[in-house]
Amino acid sequence: MEGTVRELNEDGLGIVKVGRRRVLVPFSAPGDRVRIERTRKKKRKIIAERFEILEPSPIRKEPRCEYFGRCGGCLLQHLDYRDQLEFKRSKLNAILNEDVEIIPSPKIFGHRNRIDVVISTKGIGFRRYGTWWDVVDIEWCPVFGPSSKKVLKSLREFIEDHKVSLYEIGKNEGFLRYIVIREGKFTGDLVVNLVTGPGELPEDFPGYFPYADSIYWSVNRTPSDVSYGEIERFWGREFIREKLDGTIYLIHPNSFFQTNSYAAVELLREVAKRVEGGRVLDLYSGVGTFGVYLAREGFSVEGIELNPFAVEMANRNAELNGVDAKFKVGADRDVENLGAYDTVIVDPPRAGLHPKLVKRLVQKGPEKLIYVSCNPKTLARDLSELEEAYTITHMTGLDMFPHTPHVEVVVELRRQRFN
């Protein structure tokens, strides 16, 4: 089949119409003329599995990463950054029915502060696009930055010296599974976390990473193909640090933290300028990313988070920054007395808000609600219900994820006054 890519769908795949068929072409740009040689079906969608670009679009550019087109990490690196932002603006407009301004990422390479690299018999790198069973072997990741090259070189030297077994994907066999690299972009701190199956790690492993501030060994004793496990041992510092706009955060290998430190500063500032009143509730508070920052700005902050370890880290971060912010363990659906706060911030996972929480917000919510979302679809769903009691007063997009179709959104809502 041959055709021309007319536009990208919300997942960043090019749409080619051939008769009544709608074929999705990865790594394509509007205006590309393509020949599609083989397709596959996934969730009722037809996706081009093997294709050739016959005539490139005039808006296509040369991607910086040599692994682009094979690695599944980036889908949009062949588009100029202005075109990426325009794509995301159009996407938000279609889903939220709003023309949303997008704040660009201050950096679009070397911005990512975490990568999870699989160590397998197929290669050391990232999953090949469209597969879970294959790996693109890489030397480094330009989206993460130069330190990834140093770490992966050291890892390969360790493997060569010790002849340790590598992960056989799908068989749950092999000792080495993943290496997770995290870096404080504003501090330069680096942590290397080796994830293995059960077994013995050679004692000299830390010696291969003398430049790392923190080295962890985690063991995954389950059949699940995941890049985390139980902490077996660590060397060096227990935590690395990141500093966002003057606020310091401790980062553990298993902590969730915004993956783009540079754009995270813009996110914190955007949320802070929307907060009103003195008393703030930070829901889904994680390690205190918003809460600690706002406490440094003078707000009285309480945080609620389901993960006990994240709560522990949030309270440590509050203590580290010398602020009076209190974080406790709790479930979103069980939160009461929401109207006692001047502003409530919600930053839920991709699934969005729990229906019970939405109901409580509508019935007895605060004067000001700030919704931070990484999933515009579930955001749109929740906003349609919240608008029973709230009016949207501002909406901003932030590009936390350059070269991908993903986008963060901050929505400011004010409670309606009923006569």
Automatic annotation (TrEMBL):
CDD domains: AdoMet_MTases. GO terms for molecular function: 4 iron, 4 sulfur cluster binding; RNA methyltransferase activity; S-adenosylmethionine-dependent methyltransferase activity. NCBIfam families: rumA. The active site is at C374 (nucleophile), C374. One of its GO terms (biological process) is RNA modification. Belongs to the class I-like SAM-binding methyltransferase superfamily. RNA M5U methyltransferase family. The keyword Transmembrane helix does not apply. Keywords: 4Fe-4S, Iron, Iron-sulfur, Metal-binding, Methyltransferase, S-adenosyl-L-methionine, Transferase. It comes from Thermococcus guaymasensis DSM 11113. InterPro entries: MeTrfase_TrmA_AS (IPR030390), MeTrfase_TrmA_CS (IPR030391), NA-bd_OB-fold (IPR012340), RUMT_ARLMC_TRAM_dom (IPR048845), SAM-dependent_MTases_sf (IPR029063), TRAM_dom (IPR002792), U5_MeTrfase_fam (IPR010280). S-adenosyl-L-methionine binds at Q258, Y284, E305, D347. Residues 1-52 form the TRAM domain. This is SAM-dependent methyltransferase.
